[in-house]
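Sample entry (92 residues):
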Amino acid sequence: MAKNLNSISYTVLLLALVMASTGILKSEAQTCGVGGCPNLVDRVFWGECGPAPFTGTNADCCTCCVAKFGSPPVCWAVVEGSDTHCHCYKKK
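Predicted structure, serialized as tokens:
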């Protein structure tokens, strides 16, 4: 039993390392505006921008957020959610 758990642990670790090294875990979100805020702990939700569903890219979302709220305070923008909204974030 211990051998099986050990093998599973190593397999999971290997899978996580492969995902991290290939960029699968990287966010496609857009640092935008003055300064940016790429760290999750540095930003809070500010508002939505554009139509729902938002059909543009994260760069389009950034442009929309900066036009609507200004930069600063906008420092991060991403198209997210099951209904694909453009979400704008500001620094804490």
